[in-house]
Amino acid sequence: MFNISARNQLNGTVKAVHPGKVNGLVVIDVDGQEIVADITMGSIKRLGIEEGKKVVAIIKASSVMVAAGADIAISARNQLNGTVKSVEEGAVNGIVEIELAGGQTVTADITMGSIKKLGLEAGKKAAAVIKATEVMVGVEA
């Protein structure tokens, strides 16, 4: 884990790198689920990102959307399925923690209106939905 403000730091292994002219897609296996990061080719080269490398997918909680259930049709590439572990209610926003099958968790900072509308509560199936452009990739220095 890095000492940074982003709550979500998911340990994984690079499954594939799809290079482009300016950006590339890094496919990361996180406990059997894939998360795709859209980052610059310069970063991919500088960090030595290649298949089999251990990396950390880093996502701010405010960049995580939540879907009730799993496998929804949406343009966001990343849908990490799990179970709501906890909901911390606030006046305007709340914190939803989703536990993935391997035990890692994804935290989302979403509005209380959305929490109530989706009926999010501990034990309910949910998916953390994240655009590939919102995923940073870290490697151990």
List its traits.
single chain; 141 residues; mainly beta; OB fold (Dihydrolipoamide Acetyltransferase, E2P); 2 domains; five-stranded antiparallel sheet; 2 helices
Explain what this protein looks like in three dimensions.
The protein has two domains: 8-59 and 131-138, Beta Barrel (OB fold (Dihydrolipoamide Acetyltransferase, E2P)), CATH 2.40.50; 61-130, Beta Barrel (OB fold (Dihydrolipoamide Acetyltransferase, E2P)), CATH 2.40.50.100. The strands form two sheets. Strands 3-2-1-4-10 form a five-stranded antiparallel beta sheet. It has a five-stranded antiparallel beta sheet with strand order 5-9-6-7-8. It is mainly β and 141 residues long. The model has no long low-confidence stretch (mean pLDDT 95). It has helices at 41-46, 112-118; strands spanning 8-18, 23-30, 33-40, 54-59, 65-68, 78-88, 93-100, 105-111, 125-130, 136-138.
